[in-house]
Amino acid sequence: MPLGTRVTDRPQLVLSAYEAYPDRVIPFLGLNGVATITRSLLDYLDGQLSGGQFQGMGEILSRHYSFSRTTPGGSSVEAGDFTIPMDSPGVLDLMCLAAKHNVVLTVHMESTAETVAALERALQQSPNTKVIWAHQTHIKTYGGSAPENARTADPEEIAALMDRHPNLYADIAPGFESRYLVAADGQLPDRWRDLYETYSDRFVVGHDLPFLAQWNEPEIFLNKVTLIRRWLSQLGPSAQRKLAYENMERILASEPSSAQECQFLTQ
Question: Which residues lie below 8 Å from residue 93, measured CB to CB, with a gap of 6+?
Fold first, then answer.
């Protein structure tokens, strides 16, 4: 869902796309660009999810670095700075809603010591929520947004989180850090390849295309697809199938372990 679209306009746009391409679209409620989680937003999302038409929400920008750049085609794209800690009342309420309606919550959260600790606390409080942590790749930044912060994340930290929280998943879409890509990044480092193989049930593919310009310039999309396919080609056949489609099908089809109601923390 392109940035700038009003949250209340998004459901019908998504459903229209789903109706036109039911074998190619998975309906999610768009949350990209939401800066504040209010009680009215939560009530609205609760009502939309009650119809059973949507299979997920997101991505919520828990920690997002601002940027502005020009696409190869000359379009200007920019995004703001967002901070909504994962263990804040609003995000915990979103996690409760996701569990209540058995849908996925996709999260954009750049990694720092503080954000990772907040994610862990949120997962501890919401063990029934299916969370997909976007952009977990070897080029991701850790601790900041500068070029020197790229390629500094520890895959063992992600593995430890997945060990402790079976409801945590991740995607391998290049996100903010794609601006720092170089040709050598097409090769998976051994530690990251081991992470994807060892936790091959927990990763899915994804694409980060929040700007209309990215849809109007097909080479942006195709470059990301080519990169992801190259990464997948370095995994074993079983892991390739799981990341490419089997895991997402299983995550969406899984039944809730128990019924859950929400008492919102947000007033």
Answer: 37, 42, 262, 264, 265, 266
